[in-house]
Amino acid sequence: MLKITTRNSSETLRFIVEGWLEGAHVNELENCWQTTTSITSAPMLVDLTDVTFIDDGGKQLLTRMHEQGAELIATDIMTKQVVEEVEKTYSGKGAVKNERQQS
Question: Strands, E, within 32-89: which ranges?
Answer without folding.
Answer: 44-54, 71-73
